[in-house]
Amino acid sequence: MADKKLVEAITSMEEDFAQWYTDVVKKAELLDYTSVKGCMVFKPAGYAIWELIQSQMDAEFKKTGVENVYLPMFIPESLLQKEKDHVEGFAPEVAWVTHGGLNPLQERMCVRPTSETLFCDFYKNEIQSYRDLPKVYNQWCSVVRWEKETRPFLRSREFLWQEGHTAHATAEDAEARTIQMLNVYADFCENVLAIPVVKGRKTDKEKFAGAEATYTIESLMHDGKALQSGTSHNFGDGFAKAFGIQYTDKENKLQYVHQTSWGTTTRLIGAIIMVHGDNSGLVLPPKVAPTQVIIIPIQQHKEGVLDKAFALKERLSNFRVKVDDSDKSPGWKFSECEMRGIPVRVEIGPKDIEAGKCVLVRRDTREKIECKLEDLETEVAALLDKIQVEMLERARAHRDAHTYVAKNMEQFEEIFATKSGFVKAMWCGEQACEDTIKEKLAVTSRCMPFEQEDIAPTCVCCGKPAKKMVYWGRAY
Amino acid sequence: MADKKLVEAITSMEEDFAQWYTDVVKKAELLDYTSVKGCMVFKPAGYAIWELIQSQMDAEFKKTGVENVYLPMFIPESLLQKEKDHVEGFAPEVAWVTHGGLNPLQERMCVRPTSETLFCDFYKNEIQSYRDLPKVYNQWCSVVRWEKETRPFLRSREFLWQEGHTAHATAEDAEARTIQMLNVYADFCENVLAIPVVKGRKTDKEKFAGAEATYTIESLMHDGKALQSGTSHNFGDGFAKAFGIQYTDKENKLQYVHQTSWGTTTRLIGAIIMVHGDNSGLVLPPKVAPTQVIIIPIQQHKEGVLDKAFALKERLSNFRVKVDDSDKSPGWKFSECEMRGIPVRVEIGPKDIEAGKCVLVRRDTREKIECKLEDLETEVAALLDKIQVEMLERARAHRDAHTYVAKNMEQFEEIFATKSGFVKAMWCGEQACEDTIKEKLAVTSRCMPFEQEDIAPTCVCCGKPAKKMVYWGRAY
């Protein structure tokens, strides 16, 4: 009864996907609204996922030579205005600080929506000679964008992220770093979050304000909508010229640097929820599960059961493991750890102890596996690995099953009238067609994938010769 | 010549301590000024120290049951005003956001100077029953205080810190947590930063805005000035009453919670510099040294030298180790790694290789130790441990040698006329005497230490019966 109540509190995703999402966020105690409009609280269960993302992604960054720094959260208005496209893109959505203490500021400052301008201002002094290059810096921080509509993890006025900002001697070095970081993101999504991604380049219409080229990883949610999960920008020397960031090369000539930036945010947690979750709640990939294994004693009042549960915990101390010895019923505990997405549940009761075994239950498939107690460590290790791998496989199968091909506008319209997913279609390269498609189908170009296919000779929209195959979709 | 120039760039601390400090911060590339007034850039070498502080302190927090969360950076003005003492303490020094995008806000918000009010607003909804207690949450973030005078690491308009905020069922639980966290800080300073501290309670005059009691750890810098290095506050039920944070106890009666908060900041890096540094630059305790061992090849152009250097690096991979294979001279490299405070330098040249040995040089004492190559790992491990221990011992000896006793006002005045350090003196408990002492001697009460001594029967200032022994000092 009690556990039924807990589960009933989630709307099913088939009934109302948006409500299901909000319910999971709330019931798994990841995030909550605050009295600060558009800003959220990361509760322990939500923040712990971010900490696991952060530590593992940071380790990958550092393998490629990234160094962490921290720059101010404020940007003076004059600094924000130095790069024309950039200020146009961001000025309408920043929060302005106008007073410090009791006094008005001489110049107002915005809270960083992103830190290109601050890094440029910093690099201008840091970089003098080719010996100072490359600079490959990153910071973990929060940024602010004054969004009107907000949604947990996906869009909020303040959000947590990392932003890498690099400076290089040559255009080639900058492009190589842009692609390198996109690959770090893609590998991270697949290997750690068990989320397959499509890698590609954004069209000019969709690229970052001030970038020469924006690359993206796009993932597909359970409802068939796309989520831009990370971006990597090549700025060329545009910012360098706007900010005067020059170095003397080996021939003692003044050159402009070439720059990149790349970022991922807490929306990755939204992706985890919407790619892996089900109608019982969250399903966490083992590598980002704050608790990987939960031990639930059955008939815990009976002599020896709790002791045994804690002894098993001790044996599993290489994993993130907990015992639920609260006075709730086992059924309630089962529902609760399902809601929270804990990958493996270990059930241990008097009969199990007598028989020298326990039961392992997978969160993702609900499969029950009998396990000899002597094999516990190895079985759990193998099971966590297996879950991690199979979650990615299932997500990839879902993504592939919801990726369609449209050779002409009729097919294109029909797909989005009845289905939801990625649609691959050819494009002439003109923004007019992109606009038309957006208007007619309410979809946007997600990316021009690196893996191009020759679906048709002509643009799906205008019929002129096609230049690129594009992924289209409805997006968060 | 080249290395001499690098060293000469630091003012000696005997000549001008403040300038020495600034020089070290700059030359060790820890921090830099920005065009955002009063805000600094943490450069890689500075931020890496903070990361090491953060990861090790966070691990200590988690051992005591602390969970990390993240709350918004903005506080609506009405929320800040709910606790009378608190708003009086902070309102004059906050940054105000008045516009979101192109529109004025209905209510202005400040950027958090500290987050008591946000945590209270959060706890008000989170806490209903005694089962919800205690809440032991912490966040790592940056805060903003609109300081007029700023100084690298010690005082800036934005700074990085952690702030713990807890809620408890009883006054006893809150007091126990307050003291527990003060002890975590004190142990951390001694064991990790090699900085001895005095633990004690602040006088009412010096306590935190809104607190019932503030506890502090105070450390002594090389110039004899004190640095408040961490504080832990017991709020009683004051905030709970202002915000209406109540729970139903086991007898189903409504009770107010009792709260604490506790924080440490990047000023700990300032303490490291001023406790351990010398006229050659930074001296880092091994536990927070981003590079613990630097290998400097001598005559690196000779065959086999660089290979050997990298082979040694491989063998030392349990430590944070680097090889300096740049084209600078060995002398320049020596000066540079001294400036950066790297605890152990390994020198290896052709003759060393032939003799099967290398030279280890301690940064703190400059002692040179011959080391058989076969013993390298164990020797380096032992040496790093030894340096860590001896740095604490030296800092404690310095602190003790600069801690004085004043039994009366004449002694008190004489000490501060000629010396700099902590002065222990008796106090009647009246703020009037505290004010008089501050006015006459330009010193403040640092704390009423837990370890009280019976120095004299009467107050050093007014001659009335003494209640407490107090540590006094000039402070950063």
Secondary-structure blueprint:
The structure is a homodimer of 476-residue chains.
Chain A lengths: L1 H7 L8 H11 L3 E3 L6 E3 L1 H20 L3 E2 L5 E3 H4 L3 H7 L4 E6 L2 E9 L4 H11 L8 E10 L13 E11 L2 H21 L6 E4 L11 E8 L5 E11 L1 H6 L2 E3 L5 E3 L1 E8 L1 H10 L16 E5 L7 H11 L5 E3 L6 H10 L4 E5 L1 H6 L1 E6 L5 E5 L3 H26 L1 E3 L3 H10 L3 E6 L3 H11 L2 E6 L18 E6 L3
Parallel strand pairs in A: 3-7, 15-16, 15-17, 20-21
Antiparallel strand pairs in A: 1-2, 4-6, 5-6, 7-8, 8-14, 9-10, 9-22, 10-11, 11-14, 12-13, 17-18, 18-19, 21-23, 22-23
Helix pairs in contact in A: 1-11, 3-7
What does this entry show, briefly?
Two copies of one chain form a homodimer. By secondary structure, chain A is an alpha+beta fold.
How would you characterize the overall build of this protein?
Two copies of one chain form a homodimer. Chain A is α+β, with helices and mostly antiparallel strands and 476 residues long. The first copy, chain A, folds into three domains: 12-276, 2-Layer Sandwich (BirA Bifunctional Protein, domain 2); 291-385, Rossmann fold (3-Layer(aba) Sandwich), CATH 3.40.50; 403-473, Translation Initiation Factor IF3. Helices cover 36% and strands 27% of the residues of chain A. The first copy, chain A, has 15 helices and 23 strands. Chain A has helices spanning 2-8, 17-27, 44-63, 77-80, 84-90, 116-126, 171-191, 238-243, 267-276, 305-315, 330-339, 350-355, 376-401, 409-418, 431-441; strands at 31-33, 40-42, 67-68, 74-76, 95-100, 103-111, 135-144, 158-168, 198-201, 213-220, 226-236, 246-248, 254-256, 258-265, 293-297, 321-323, 344-348, 357-362, 368-372, 403-405, 422-427, 444-449, 468-473. In chain A, the strands form five sheets. Chain A has an eleven-stranded mixed beta sheet, with helices on both faces. In chain A, strands 16-15-17-18-19 form a five-stranded mixed beta sheet, with helices on both faces. In chain A, strand 15, helix 10 (305-315) and strand 16 (321-323) form a beta-alpha-beta unit. In chain A, helix 3 (44-63) packs across helix 7 (171-191). The longest helix of chain A has 26 residues, at 376-401. The radius of gyration of chain A is 25 Å and the shape is globular. The two termini of chain A are 36 Å apart. The mean pLDDT of chain A is 96. The interface between A and B is large, with 50 and 50 residues. Strand 5 (95-100) of chain A pairs antiparallel with strand 5 (95-100) of chain B.
